[in-house]
Amino acid sequence: MILEKPILNYQYISRISPSNFTALKGCHYKFILNKAIGGKPVLPVSIHSYKGTFVHRILEHISLGKIRSEEELSNYINNELKIINEQILNDGNSIYIPLHSKLKNFGLLKIKLKRFLIEKLKSKNPVTGIQFSSEKWYETNDKLVGGKIDLVCEYSNRIEIIDFKTGAITDELLDDEGEKFKEVKIDYQAQLKLYAALFHEQTGKKVDRLFLVDLQKNKYEISFSFDECNQLIREAKKILMRINEEIATRIFLANPTIENCKFCLNRPVCSYYKKSLSNGLKTSDIIGRIIKSQKFLNGNVSLFLQTQIGNVTIKNFEISFFESFNKAIGKEIIIYNVQADKMENSFLANQLTRIYES
């Protein structure tokens, strides 16, 4: 179906979180749009987003010592699956239910969680005498910057902050000699440093070490100084002030690039993105005018568009799309989240594909 765009209701932003700090630096308008549409994404989230939430919760339970056996792990997995399936249903993404059967290699994921538990149980670090706090909110005194920290471990002689990541933690880069090396992603580094500053401001205690931990229990330490952490807090507040100035004046600092836009779930309501797409920005979206549609005996429907690169075909739509396509012949539309086909100027629709009037 061809969908209507939600109405934008611009609102002032009250707070910045460490998790979206780097994205905000890349494009202010992305954050402004999210608030303007009430925080509910226009495009569907990927199944990997729910996978990340699910795995994240299990890792926290293991690290806090709440799971102490494989039987308890199995029970927690089943319980968290029920919770995440309810969330998926409430989000209107029933195509991902049940999650465990829709995810590829879910059995392998359970094995990795089991290995993470076994390594934790083998750990020689004594649990007694350590104060843990999990998923606790920390914020600046003026409440302008705040977020939840995955895990704070307060030992007798040091304080550590741990953040769990279910995807890749490092980027592969090239040095001045052209040699490859891996570095922890810049946005993850900034996130941990902001957490350290928030923890200090709220508790008066200084953090000694910052860590990122992945599903394989690889541990990456982030070097930092408190001057650096506090500088990031000041920078975040300046960004927040500029964003609210943009909202007041309606003069927005959008930055439509492939890096900023490819994972943005609010592309359909961004006029800056539409203009860049019309000017040749190459993404997984197609903008064009409907020429015709065609249905086949197998029940699939193909759509034919006139675009800047010539006439293109988008295949694999369900039969229910045929009537709405015919009624919209001559209209300009944007089709989001298509996949390239083997044939030139041919694309495939999928479960994440959505269509909006241009």
Low-confidence stretches: none
The DSSP helix count reads 11
Strand content: 15-25%
Shape: globular
| Helix residue percentage | 25-40%
Distance between the terminal alpha carbons, to the nearest Å? 14 Å
Mean pLDDT: 91
Q: How many DSSP E strands?
A: 15
The domain count comes to: 3
Give the biggest sheet. Answer: 8 strands, mixed
Task: Write the element-wise H/E pattern from the N-terminal end onward.
Answer: EHHHHHHEEEEEHEEHHHEEEHEEEE
Q: What's the arrangement of strands in the largest beta sheet?
A: 1-15-12-9-10-11-14-13
Structural class: alpha+beta
Q: Taking Cα atoms only, what radius of gyration do you get, to the nearest Å?
A: 23 Å
Structure notes:
By secondary structure, the chain is α+β, with helices and mostly antiparallel strands. The two termini are 14 Å apart. The protein folds into 3 domains: 2-122, no CATH class; 131-230, Lambda Exonuclease, Chain A (Alpha-Beta Complex); 284-357, Nucleic acid-binding proteins (OB fold (Dihydrolipoamide Acetyltransferase, E2P)). Helix 3 (47-63) packs antiparallel against helix 4 and helix 3 (47-63) packs parallel to helix 6. It has helices at 21-26, 28-36, 47-63, 70-90, 99-102, 106-122, 186-203, 226-249, 258-261, 271-278, 322-327, and strands at 2-3, 131-139, 146-154, 159-164, 170-174, 180-184, 209-213, 219-222, 286-295, 301-307, 310-317, 332-336, 339-340, 346-348, 354-357. It is globular, with a radius of gyration of 23 Å.
